[in-house]
Amino acid sequence: MAEIVVLGAGMVGVSSALALQANGHDVTIVDRKAPGRETSFGNAGIIQVEAAEPYPLPRDIAAQVKIGLGRTNDVFWRPRGLMQMAPALLSYFRHSAPQHHARIARVYAGLTSRASRDHAPLIEAANAQNMISREGLSCLYRDARAFEAAAKDAERIRSSYGVTSRALGGAEYRAEEPALTKTPAGVIHWDQSWSCSDPGALTQAYAQLFERRGGRLLSGDASTLSSSARGWSVRTTDGAIEAEQAVIALGPWSPEMLKTFGYSIPMVYKRGYHGHFSMPVALRRPFLDAANGVVAASMRQGLRITTGAALVTHDAPADIRQLEHGRRSLGDLLDLGKRVEEEQWFGTRPCLPDMLPMVGAAPKHKGLWFNFGHGHQGFTLGPTTASLLAEAMDGNVAAVRSLQPAERLN
Ligand SMILES: Cc1cc2nc3c(=O)[nH]c(=O)nc-3n(C[C@H](O)[C@H](O)[C@H](O)COP(=O)(O)OP(=O)(O)OC[C@H]3O[C@@H](n4cnc5c(N)ncnc54)[C@H](O)[C@@H]3O)c2cc1C
Questions:
Q1: How many domains does the chain have?
Q2: Domain at 211, CATH number
Q3: What are the tens digits of pLDDT across the range 332-389?
Q4: How far, in Å, are 48, 101, 241, 244 from residue 304 at the CA level?
Q5: Residue 111 counted as domain residue
Q6: pLDDT given for residue 341 in this prediction
Q7: What is the CA(287)–ligand 1 centre distance, in A?
Q8: Residues 81, 226: one domain?
Q9: How do beta strands 3-7 and 245-248 pair?
Q10: 171: CA distance to ligand 1 center in Å?
Q11: pLDDT in the model for residue 318
Q12: Average pLDDT in the 92-120 region?
């Protein structure tokens, strides 16, 4: 048994703490906020078994021109944001070449394919079944050509990775989704994915489970981490705590914090927004409006619209153009009702240029471990990479092969 401190109480940190605790370790989580209040709070809540392939940067000129001219709602960019992230974006572009992406996707599919199985025992033990729907995720296409191409691609995904889906004509889908007020061209329905009606509350429920099982949750600043005679020390509001091992699970804040330890970790920060609407009829299942790059999901707070990626500087003020675009376009398919009054939320997907989460031993420090960089699918993959990390920390380093920092940082 080791004493371990996990820094970060998002889905990744809390899941890591649970997995380490299950392996018999004495675990403390430290976060400056309550669990699940940052990126793990405001996402679309999909446990994305369908996400066999991580998002590459488009390599074809037509798609690049569309992004460059601001003609797609999937990606929004500002020159200063691109400049700040230039080295990471270049590396992301290189890793997006088809031969690299194919290799990366094989690793990624191995993670996402087990994600719902890894969440299942936690959902049950945390008594959180009432937040989970197993109805799948739909991708809705507004024009017939896009639908045909998506149906072909879904068949490719099935034969390559075994991820199943149904292709439905618009009228057929409308019969399954009474909330639609207009018939789309067609829908690909990914039936293995799950969704959560309150991702922040699920993270919190996992944290409560961790505490019920004897774990400690303390408030403190991760940037006070320093090496000590025992291993690691971090200051909390309950005083300094010591541990033999420390896990960095600070999501998009991980690279900044690790600078002080001499690590230069390139990250593409993809900001996303959400807004809630009082929609009178709940959706049966969440869907992606493919033409407009937004996801619509019924949540406890109302219909949540989440946006694609905004490549902006860390300190850029909220700019809700993508959300407004999503509201207008979805207003055409659904009776959205009124915008719920709330403080404008945004969060940042912590994306590493090679599209894989970084899980394993810190190359330059004994007893320091990483588990961050889950990009678009950290809510999905929290329990999965947590279980791999716990195995690696108990000596089975092969569990994190392909995800290890040592081979990826130079
Ligand atoms: C709009 C949007 C939609 C998304 N939709 C989905 C989806 O449907 N499915 C999916 O799988 N993923 C989705 N994601 C991605 C997912 O939300 C993230 O990958 C995931 O939440 C990352 O979790 P994390 O635990 O690594 O980070 P976080 O949840 O951000 O947790 C990091 C924690 O570190 C703490 N912290 C930071 N700095 C310090 C410090 N100095 N001291 C102490 N504590 C600190 C923070 O308070 C926070 O609690 C979406 C993301 C966005 C933005």
A1: 2
A2: 3.50.50.60
A3: 999 999 999 999 999 999 999 999 999 999 999 999 999 999 999 999 999 999 999 9
A4: 17, 31, 39, 42
A5: no
A6: 95
A7: 21
A8: no
A9: parallel
A10: 37
A11: 97
A12: 98
Q: What is the CA radius of gyration of the chain?
A: 21
**Is 116 a domain residue?**
no
Burial degree of 395 (CB within 10 A; 0-12, 13-18, 19+)? exposed
255 & 283 share domain: no
Of all protein residues, the one whose alpha carbon is nearest to atom 1 of ligand 1 is: 272
Q: Are residues 14 and 157 in the same domain?
A: no
Residue from 192, 379, 380 to probe ligand 1 pocket by mutation (most atoms less than 8 Å from CB): 379
Q: What is the pLDDT of residues 220-257, one digit of tens each?
A: 999 999 999 999 999 999 999 999 999 999 999 999 99
Question: Are 343 and 360 contained in the same domain?
Answer: no
Strand order in the sheet with 239-243: 226-227, 232-236, 239-243
The residue to mutate among 74, 108, 236, 250, having the most atoms of ligand 1 within 8 angstroms of its beta carbon, is 250
Specify the 3-state DSSP secondary structure of 95: helix
In angstroms, what is the span from residue 156 Cα to ligand 1's centroid?
A: 30
Q: How remote is the CA of residue 295 from the centroid of ligand 1, in Å? A: 17
> What are the pLDDT digits (tens) for 11-24?
999 999 999 999 99
Give yes or no for residue 1 having a pLDDT over 90.
Answer: no
- Looking at residue 407, its pLDDT comes to 85
Tell me if 122 is assigned to some domain: no
Ligand 1 atom 19, closest CA:
378
Question: For residue 52, how far is its CA from the centre of ligand 1 (angstroms)?
Answer: 20
Q: Whose CA is nearest to atom 4 of ligand 1?
A: 43
Q: What is the DSSP string of 216-228?
A: EEEEB-GGG-EE-
Ligand 1: which of 38, 46, 192 to mutate, judged by most atoms within 8 Å of the beta carbon? 38
Same domain membership, residue 360 and residue 402: yes
- The answer to whether residue 119 sits within a structural domain is no
The pLDDT value given to residue 2:
80
pLDDT digits (tens, 9 = 90+) for 284-333: 999 999 999 999 999 999 999 999 999 999 999 999 999 999 999 999 99
- Which atom belonging to ligand 1 lies closest to the Cα atom of 35? 49
Identify the domain containing residue 278 by its residue range: 61-93+127-197+267-351
Mark whether 81 and 168 lie in a shared domain. Answer: yes
Q: Which of 351, 371, 392 is the last residue of a domain?
A: 351
Distance (Å) from CA 332 to ligand 1 centroid: 31
Distance 201 CA to ligand 1 centre (A): 13
Instruction: Round to whole Å and give the CA distance between 29 and 8.
Output: 7
Tell me which residue of 159, 210, 180 sits closest to 386, measured CA to CA. Answer: 210
In angstroms, rounded to a whole number, what is the distance separating the alpha carbons of residues 334 and 295? 13
From the alpha carbon of 378, which atom of ligand 1 is closest? 19
Q: Please compute the mean of the pLDDT values over residues 40-60 and round it to a whole number.
A: 96
Looking at the fold, whether 151 and 233 belong to one and the same domain comes out as no
